[in-house]
Specification:
Blueprint (H helix, E strand, L loop, with lengths): L5 E2 L2 E2 L1 H4 L5 H33 L10 H31 L5 H35 L1 H31 L9
Antiparallel strand pairs: 1-2
């Protein structure tokens, strides 16, 4: 039987590592996703709220045009990140009671992944804006770039390396 295949009695436990029905698996994955989203969504909302207030500060009028444009990009990225990270709530409300939990989990997981990319970009552009004011252009760009590289390592590269390491030991790729 292929990995993740189901037989007459449901999923093959020797392949999935768990004895759970597709509905139980979807419920577990949904709960895991909600825990992940709580962390990212809180950070996104706090950052976005702070960004909204910046335009009302007296110093904002003195920003160069590049920095004003960077601010606009940063606010838009923050809005998109917040929207993507809050979208699973809307999906859940619309899908509730329709026996579409696996589809809900897949769609929500994609939106959370998009939201995390947008959050990283928001943080990077906010950092660039702040550092440009604090220490100047070229140094600020290098520092912001280094922070973004660190995010790429922590959020993407290290997990992929770990997955490759485990897959190389003969373990099958996870189904969730």
């Amino acid at each position: 039987m292929a990995p993740g295949a189901t037989g007459r009695n449901g999923p093959d436990p020797s392949r999935s590592g768990r004895q759970e029905s597709p509905e139980e698996r979807a419920d577990r994955r949904w709960n895991d996703l909600l825990q992940e989203v709580r962390v990212a969504q809180t950070g996104s909302q706090v950052l976005f709220g702070f960004l909204l207030s910046v335009v009302f500060m007296p110093r904002f009028a003195q920003l160069e045009q590049f920095d004003r444009n960077l601010y606009v990009v940063t606010v838009v990225l923050g809005a998109l990140a917040t929207g993507s990270l809050a979208a699973p709530v809307s999906y859940h409300r619309l899908f509730a009671g329709r026996r579409l939990k696996p589809e809900l989990v897949e769609a929500a997981a994609r939106l959370v992944a998009i939201g995390l990319v947008l959050l990283a970009l928001t943080i990077g552009s906010a950092l660039l804006l702040l550092l440009r004011e604090a220490i100047g252009g070229a140094t600020a760009a290098w520092i912001a770039g280094a922070v973004m590289a660190y995010f790429a390592c922590c959020w993407l590269l290290l997990p992929l390396v770990q997955l490759r390491r485990h897959d190389g030991r003969g373990r099958r790729p996870p189904t969730d």
